[in-house]
Structures
1.
Amino acid sequence: MAAWSTRAADAADLAGLRLLLTESCEAAVVPSSALLAEAVDRGLVRVAESEDELVGCIAAEMPSPGHVRLSVIAVRDRMRRQGVASRLLAETVAHSSRRPSEPPLISAVARTEETAVTRLLLVSGFIGTRVIHTGGTDDALHVHFQYKARVEYIDPDARHLVHVHARKQLTESLAPSDHAVTALVTLAGEPAFEIARFEQDDPATLQSGEAAAGIAFSGSILAAITFLLGFAFTSSRFPDDVRLLLIGATFSTVLSLIVYASASGELARIRSNAFGKIMKWGNVLSEYGGVFPFLISLPVTYAQASGDPWTTMVLAVVLSAAIAWYEHSEFSIAHRFRRSRNERALMLITAASPTVGSALVAADVTSWPWTTVLTATLAARTWLYLFRRGAEADIAERRQWQIRG
């Protein structure tokens, strides 16, 4: 089995791409030279190569900022059934979803007879939503597939099977907007589509509940920080730098409350379709400006109240371990964004902060350097998630649709 690798195509690959598409695809689906060159310039073409030869490719076009249409997927015969097409498709979806703006809709159109392409799309997180009438001269039936970037539920009692060649029944089954093709199976020795009904959620109700939960959570954190800040000002031994850290946490938490309230106004009156962006600001400010400073300050407060260095260090180590676990769990805000090597270093500093800070306070050593590093770390993570990452959607290893029992 020959080794192969994937990468983004460049202008030097155009001749090889034309040759690959001509030899592997029907002439009707091969993009023109101008469209192929434009797609390469826009970063919408990925290739697989083996021994300096192009053995597979996927090309797309972007007719609007909110829509990516897959144009063609091609793999040489000798390289099939090795996962080449699957990897090319997965990388294209991941690259398109990481755009700075809202992730675009990723779609494809395939004939019902193209079972290999259909199966590839379905196992890669796509669903068939409707029948497309292309107006061509052939009588082939085309199905529109789109990538599910949002988790939705299907009714387990509202599913049925339709043979691939039952065109009239397939058209009728996909006519309702809440029905879609979710799998390709074998029925009586013939390929068949499994069609399921998706439960229809009320986005306004869900978003309103999310905003209310954000306000309640930030309010609770603000009350806890305010109590701790009051203790800090009544204790003459409490480090001034930790007092400043708690003041900053109070400001950030109040700011997150304002942002969450703005999200409620977005739902009720403004409706500029910016709810996701507003909630991202509230979530990030609440977590890295409020929750983490509060939690990291707890063992420092305990050190001042108890004066026992041993129990202080035990508490600090346990809290550091808990923060490290939380940071790597799917419950953290960081889990909703793409992670880089620098970000993992910042996560390590955050997790180690309770232990380091408590050790400095227990040893009666100046803690300003620790507070400065912690503040810079949390500020860097806040800046990273607010300005260098897209929407809270880049969640790996999660099914794109689920069955609700």
2.
Amino acid sequence: MGSPVVDISWPSSIVDSFDQSFDIQIEEGNSSDTSDSLDNTKSSAFYHHNIPKPPPLPMKNSNRGLAKCCYVPKETKDIWEKLFRDGYGADVHIITDDGSIITAHHSVLSVASPVLENFLQQSKVKNRIRYIRIPGVPYDALYAFIRFLYSSCYEEEEMKKFVLHLLVLSHCYVVLSLKRVCEHILEDGWLTKENVIDILQLARSCDAPRLSLVCLRMVMKDFKSISTTEAWKVMKRANPSLEQELLESVVEADSRKQERQKKIEEKKVYLQLHDAMEALLHICRDGCRTIGPRDKVLKGSQVACGFQACKGLETLIRHFSGCKSRVPGGCVHCKRMWQLLELHSRMCNEPEYCKVPLCR
């Protein structure tokens, strides 16, 4: 069998991009080839002139927060609210645990949730009405859920009251916009030390990583109080692996905190040593208020010194010059002075001209 002939016609814009992407240098050739290349360049420039300008870059959205009650304009909200509330042309009956019925529309539910679409395709039809049952959820929570599918609206009091039910419903029926709203409400002041463990387990079951991270940080921040709650004791019996994971996270966080504190202390000591070395050089070279080299005129104690460590170092030098304890390790203050002098001698770049004692 012969292979079919495929005729591929490239758009002119793609051909132009190829022409501009390659820089071909011709070292040898006749004049006709050169003229042809010039003609091609002119045609490429002509095509490039006709290419439309690209669209502008998308602007950054400065308002990333969640709206309080609504995501849609008021007019659209009113239309969808009326359609849901009046049930005009409704062809779906949703049955709750208490036997109540919520009317809805097959097309709206199918577009809003792929899971509901699948359920509706498998549901029984009677008198052109489809019946589905959603158990385990109170009527008011389910009513708020179906209402959100229509208009993306909710009442704040109902949302705060049934936020856990709505989080589960939004996860089970893949309603991501409602799921984001529930996560935001839970993160914004809803968590307490009594319920954070329960919310953490629920967030992991509902695939809410940000909410899980917020709960985990709260546990590590107030571990002593949270570990004594009833929710922790229940979690310890029902899910010991999660308890082990939380304990390891707390230990790791404490280790990182100690490491950061250690680095802060090291930096603080380094800065103190730096200030002491600068003050020592200042006293021995320029002289300070009441202490300095013999060839310098001291300025007196009333003049303020710009070195913070100068006053303490002045007292240390006076003690060092008159201390009677000469045995090794006998005086802590003298030992500090010896350490400063040794450190300066190791760091000094001009020992021949330096006026600091023992700088050789």
